[in-house]
Design brief:
20% of the residues lie in helices and 11% in strands. It has 107 residues and is α+β, with helices and mostly antiparallel strands. It binds iron/sulfur cluster and FE3-S4 cluster.
């Protein structure tokens, strides 16, 4: 199992999650973070840190977010590790809670 970053992280990228991860398994793209499923130890620490409620265990992943399993796997192989908190994206609060942001994902 692993934890999965889902749609609501896109265009918010608050990054509070990275500070608590004991195994540094978050990887950063231009407007989204993903978790490397091979590194995640399922500690759950990141879940309450995300103000956007974007992180789920694979077991609790909503049906409409299932495609994020593959996205986390694939993009974590391409993007660099992020371990330190940074400023959220501009307009993060405005985008928080908007649905179907995958169309805005940048690579
Ligand atoms: Fe890191 Fe734990 Fe979150 Fe996995 S569940 S991404 S190990 S903080
Ligand atoms: Fe994204 Fe939430 Fe982390 S918005 S960057 S998963 S704190």
């Amino acid at each position: 199992m692993s934890f999965i970053v889902t749609d609501n992280c896109i265009l918010c990228k608050y990054t509070d999650c990275v500070e608590v991860c004991p195994v540094d398994c978050f990887h950063e793209g231009p407007n989204f973070l993903v978790i490397d499923p091979d590194e995640c130890i399922d500690c759950t620490l990141c879940v309450p840190e995300c103000a956007a409620n974007a992180i789920y265990s694979e077991d609790d992943l909503p049906e409409d977010q299932q495609h994020f399993i593959k996205l986390n796997t694939d993009l974590s192989q391409q993007w660099p590790v992020i371990t330190e908190l940074k400023e959220p994206l501009n307009d993060a609060e405005q985008w928080d809670g908007k649905l179907n942001k995958l169309q805005y994902l940048e690579y």
